[in-house]
Amino acid sequence: MKKYCAVMAIMAAMASLASQVEWWSVPAMSGTQRLPDVRPDDGEKGGAIRIVAAMGEIESASIVVSADREIPEFTLAVGDLVSKSGDRIPAGNFDPYVIKVWYQNGNAWWNYFHDVGLKLVPELLLRDENLIKVDEKEVANFVRVNNPKGVEWRWVSPPHAIDPGFKSAVEPVFDAPSLMPAKIEKGKYKQFWINVKVPGDAKPGLYEGNIALVANGKKACDVPVKLRVLPFALPDPKTYYDLKSDFYAMLYVCSTGNIDVFMRRNGGDRQNAEKKLMARLKMQASYGYTDALYLGYRPGRIGEEQTVRQLEMAKEAGMRTDPFFECFHATHGSTAADEAPPENVYRARRDIRIAGDFLHKLLGHRNFWPAGGEEPGLGSILKFRPVWKEVHKAGYNLMCNGQDRSSVGGFNDELRVHGGIADASHARFSHAVKGKIGNYAGPHNGPENPEYMRRRHGMSLYKKDFDMTYNYDWCEGDWNDLRGAYRITAVYETRDGFVSTTQWEGMREAIDDIRYSTLLLQLAEEAYAYGPAETEKYYAARKAMRFVALFDGETGDLDAYRMETIGHILKLMKLLGKERL
Amino acid sequence: MDNLNIGKILAIGMFCLGLGCVDAFSEVQTPDSTSEKLRQEARKFERRNRPAHEEKLLEALSVEGISDKQRRLAVSDLVRNGYMLDNAAAYGKAKALILPILSREDMTNSSSRIAYTIMLSDAAFRSSMPEESKRLLDGLWQLGDLKFNDTNAIFNARVDIDKKMCDYDAARKAYCKVFENPLEHSVRRWDAIRAAVDLWSADRLLDEGIEALDKWDHEKLGHRFDIFSFRCRLMREKGDYDGVRDLSLSLMKEEFSSERDKKNAREAALAELLRNDLERNDLDSAVSNLKEYGEIYKGAVNPLNSIVSSLARLAYTRNDWEKGAFIADLKLDYAFKWGFNWMTRDSFLNYYQALRALGRQAEIPPSTEKIVASDKVGEEDAVLFRIIGARFGKGRLTPKTIRDAAGSAEPKLKLRALANAAKFFVAHGDRETALAIYSFRQALMVDRPQNRAKVKYVKDAPIDVGRWYSSGLMDKLERHDVDVPYDEDEAKKLIYDVSVQRDVSKSGGDSETYFYVCWDDWGVHLLFVGMDSKYREVMEGSLGGTGYEMYLCFGEGAPTYQWIMDDQKNGKIHYYDYASQGKNYRPLKDHVIVYSAPVEGGFATAMNIPWSAGYERLPDNGTTWPFEMIRWSRGGGVTWGGETIWQISRWGRWVFEGMTKERKTAIKRSLLNAARARFSAQSSIRGGEIFMWQDKEIGDPEFYSEALRPFVEKIQNDIAALTPEADARTIDRLYEECMGPMYDFKYYADEIREKYLRKKFTEE
After folding, report:
1. What are B402-437's pLDDT values in tens digits?
2. Which residues contact B471 (CB under 8 A, 6 or more apart)?
3. HSE, side-chain direction, 13 A CA sphere, residue A485
4. Closest residue by Cα to residue A164 from B213, B539, B424, B350
5. Phi first, then psi: what are they for A233, rounded to 5°?
6. pTM for the predicted model, two decimal places
7. Is A345 in contact with A331 (CB distance < 8 Å)?
């Protein structure tokens, strides 16, 4: 009997080894939901992974894998990529993930609103797919909690009425540091995601190599990888209407805003709070969201020590603090219907003076943009006028979110962050009165669709002449999609860090789209300056400008736009005699 | 008075008694009561209608013979809640009102004079005249015969001006002058030092504050322990936690002649030790302090109790069950002694979580019995704790045990208690019990069945309101009423949905709303009607019209369309897209045809949605399309079935009928013809993609010939088969292969271009 079992085991193992593994290379930033039962017909079966990226850029690629029998342990083994001249992009610069399909509410993928039903949606970029257990029979998600006494599976999709909340800042929930084997079910399709970080000093050129598909410890096949490192690094993003004017990218955060908030949620663990804040700052900065935003400073009262530390951390993470947006709050008006009493103005004057001096000492500049309220209505705008005036008297700019306030304002704020779908007419007005305009809630964070979120944070705003993306919320700190009226999270919180999502990757590409556009138009300006007599340069410049002008940020194909932009950049570089930027 | 008259009066009196008019006889109307009644009436307008508010108060003041006290009340309301809402005018108005009062001959009462002058001073400050405000108050010191309360009022009003102007230095000096003067009344000295501590803290002059506190002659004044706490506060703000600890331990060890002083001293010392721990999040030290000095806590009231509660919460936040349970054990007696409210409910739930984590669940049932037996426990908590007790006492919960535990509690309360109980078990990881309670709870709720509307085929369906009304279809098709009231509180929450502008504030009108829906070869046709008895006023523009918010998906799982019609009269629609336009999503704004018109007793809108908007999702018989509409009328919000916006699982469903093979072929044929026309336009010099790519200046002829031309030629070859004679099979094939590429050619071309360039960039 023993012999029989052994033979069967060997046969099973051999059968497993002989599994026919198929893959499709698919566009990572696609709006197509990649569900286990859907064959990726938009992908190239057996196709190479082709990545085109600038020096220092993070770029994503994706494959969908299927097998004719179950593979309990399937993984990707990334090798170094090598150029013909022998230069290398080390395997360590590749970060592979498995895309977790899990239960989200009925609005998922399309929106961020609450619903009572659940459906399967691809969203999480996990290194260990077993962090989340999806029970299709019970229609439920469970998250793995590594308690000291053993693993516990916590139900994180109970109906809203009976959800006690999940203490994601405290519970020992961790993703793996690198890709763990995932299970491929017979006849099902599983998506893998690969982020590659091109070194900033990589030599431009074509690098080639393979990603091995490994089934139960044995290599099943190689997926060819071709990476073109472009001969330029991307500049900081600028606005479309003015190449000298910065395009600002920031993310409003509630549950993960600053050390104090982290400590309130994690039971006062300062070390962990700093670790999490640094993780947040680095994730955002590396994805182009480099404006630090409000860090919890209350002038003259609480937060000096934390602010000092947080600004150090922000700088270390690569955040920009000049200008410093929402560096403190300047409203000092109650929400009552009456006009702000004079004492509010005196208090505001004092706080603005204290905050300005404190931050000036820390940062060495006074490019401060205090926040003038939280979605104030028109009546509140009237009330806030005296306090906003104090901000201006101190020499600072004022930013404030909310709806169109041109009927009563527009003269006393420098930056309106518009809530809702962006409209070019809002930008026209803001710029006509020498102001700037940002956008949030158009829509809020939450939809898992990377293509849609890429557009909304990037080219849609850029082409409407907006100056800023400022969306809410980056991380809500909860795992249940049935909880609350809105589900506005871009990433999920673990004990020590955050789990990325398809939408967060899309939001990175959004800023990169603007950076590519910026570089293209910068080069076009340079070529254009040669004048019509230098016809080739002049035409190439104007063709590039024409291309961007005709591109519809609302409806255009963003992947095609990227490739076309690169084509124009390379052409202009050649004409301008620039080998490398 | 003769007997007859007396008899008449008695009879009238008896009659009035019988009619309940006794109050009219018994209540004596005085000038003050009349004035007070008017003052109360004025409050209804406070902050909502300033002119009406002021008018009523002036009326209250004009009542003849009112007392000085009543006059002061009315003037105070008028100045503080009326005039002072208008900063610029406040002082002028207050002067006009108050100066005549102050000049009255009977104005001899200093307290009244002071009160009026303070009001005047407040108004001057409000009108940005701080120096005038100060001058008025400083003048009051000239009044003779000032009593303690008078000087207190003048002093506080004066120093408040300094504080309001953020001149904390001046305010602090004034306070210090008071509390450093041993001849001052002890209460005023006490108030002054308390206020000064806040200002030292605000200006971060902590050492100065500590030094001043050291000068305090507390022995005589009996506030020693409070001064101790102030000192500790300032020391902690400096970061001197060790100093606070030393000071606290020293006080803890001190001997006192009275038991009361001893108790107060120890409570104050323990409170500061624990505050230290709380601020530093040092639970180890807190537990150690509580172990050593726990006896002091027993029976103590705030602030000690709230500090201990905060420490317990900190332990639970960290999942530090052992320390949480230890602190909770200390608190248990306390809760029974001082009350059981929602805060302590949480404490208990946390406590039980700790007990379970520590394997002490056997202690839970007796504890819950004790809670339930307490007369301080409300019914909701009794249900909650009975369920928890039953689960840990009897093991698995059955519907019967849940029903018994829920008892005869009021339904809403029962639902809340059951939800809280289920939450507790979810948090415990006991999903089975949580689901059992949840199922029981759901069964108590009236669950509205999902609405379903049959969408029938109608040949050449009407496209505008007039045709709908003359078609007779409204007698043949099913009418669907939109009559589920939208919860008012939920509607108010929509203000937080900044992405969409909608007016939900309308009230006081009709809400009768219904719709009909059908389909034909062109698309889906919806007629919705909003009855409005004031439609004439709406037509003339003196009243605002009805708004609609609608949602539709072209099938389950398809992207959601959302649109808002602000005013049915105009029929203007704002569309909100939650997907990018592309091969699988086309914005409705480019496709839908809308007509609105007044009808008898209201307005109607015909909305026509062509199949072209969702050509890849043509329905079959039985296919369902999620649909919801909300009418934001002057009568409040009504929905077809959803409880709140966006709850797609609760929306109704359109169910298609009559989709025969022939009809579907007809639809496809029509769509293919439309797509072919769009495709042909791609060769146009006016922005056609095919033309553009072949152009050597703005296009890429090499790309065209290598990559795009084969695609174009295939379409051209295939579509040649689209003739009027083409059979159903051919139409199906062409629809499958050519519909998308022709209708959305640009997106297909862009994909080909993207792949072409990507490949080019990644080859040598």
Report:
1. 998 888 888 889 999 999 999 999 998 899 999 999
2. B462
3. 12
4. B424
5. -105, 155
6. 0.92
7. no
Distance (Å, whole) CA B55 – CA B37:
14
User: In terms of CA atoms, which chain B residue is nearest residue A166?
Assistant: B427
- Tokens 């009644």: give the residue: B37
Would you call B748 an interface residue with chain A, using a CB distance cutoff of 8 Å?
Answer: no
B128–A339 C-beta distance less than 8 A: no
Using a CB-CB distance cutoff of 8 angstroms, which residues of chain B are in contact with residue A563? 753-754, 757-758, 761
CA Rg value for chain B: 39
Identity of residue A78: V
The candidate with the shortest Cα–Cα distance to A454, out of A490, A424, A493, is A490
| Contact indicator for B367, B377 with CB cutoff of 8 Å | no
Based on its alpha-carbon atoms, the radius of gyration of chain A, rounded to whole angstroms, reads 26
For A33, the token pair is: 């939901």
Structure tokens at A525: 């300006």
This complex has an ipTM of 0.95
pLDDT tens-digit map of A425-472: 999 999 999 999 999 999 999 999 999 999 999 999 999 999 999 999
Q: Where are the beta strands (DSSP E) in A136-204?
A: 140-147, 150-155, 182-184, 190-197
Classify strands A190-197 and A81-83 as parallel, antiparallel or unpaired: unpaired
CB A255 within 8 A of CB A493: yes
Pick from A450, A413, A396: nearest CA to A122: A450
Token pair recorded at residue B464: 């505008």
Contacts of B84 in chain A (CB under 8 A): 338, 341
Considering only residues 602 to 631 of chain B, which have any Cβ-Cβ distance to chain A shorter than 8 Å? none
Residue A246 CA to residue A467 CA, distance in Å, equals 7
Chain A CB contacts of B46 below 8 Å: none
Interface test with B, best of A154, A557, A566, A573 (most B CBs within 10 A): A557
A528: its two tokens: 């254009």
Distance CA B18, CA B16 (A): 5
Say whether residue B499 is in contact with chain A using an 8 A CB cutoff.
yes
DSSP A54: E
Closest Cα in chain B, distance from residue A542 (Å): 11
Beta-bridge mates of residue B633: B636
What's the confidence (pLDDT) of residue B12?
41
Predicted local distance difference test score (pLDDT) of residue A335: 47
Q: Is A437 helix (H, G, I), strand (E, B) or coil?
A: strand
Question: Strand ranges (DSSP E) for A216-323?
Answer: 218-233, 248-252
Put simply, the answer to whether B747 touches A557 (Cβ < 8 Å) is yes
Q: Which of B757, B759, B763, B764 to mutate to test the interface with A (most CBs of A within 10 A)?
A: B757
Distance CA A470, CA A291 (A): 9
Helices (H), B31-106: 31-43, 50-61, 68-76, 87-102
* Mean pLDDT (whole number) for B496-519: 81
Q: Is B20 on the interface with A (CB under 8 A)?
A: no
Give me the residue from B86, B320, B498 closest to A375, CB to CB.
B498
Which residue positions in chain A have pLDDT lower than 70?
1-19, 294, 300-302, 333-339
Query: What is the C-alpha separation between A55 and A579, in angstroms, rounded?
Result: 13
Cα separation, A422 vs A442, whole angstroms? 6
Say how far apart CA A455 and CA B30 lie, in whole Å. 72
Q: Is B458 helix (H, G, I), strand (E, B) or coil?
A: coil
Shortest alpha-carbon distance between residue B422 and chain A (Å)? 6
The residue whose two tokens read 């490192």 is A229
- Indicate the pLDDT class of residue B113, thresholds 50, 70 and 90: very high
Inter-chain contacts counted by CB atoms under 8 A, chains A and B: 206
> Hey, are the CB atoms on A347 and B581 less than 8 Å from each other?
no
Distance between CA A47 and CA A53 in Å, rounded?
A: 19
Average model confidence (pLDDT) for chain B?
Answer: 89
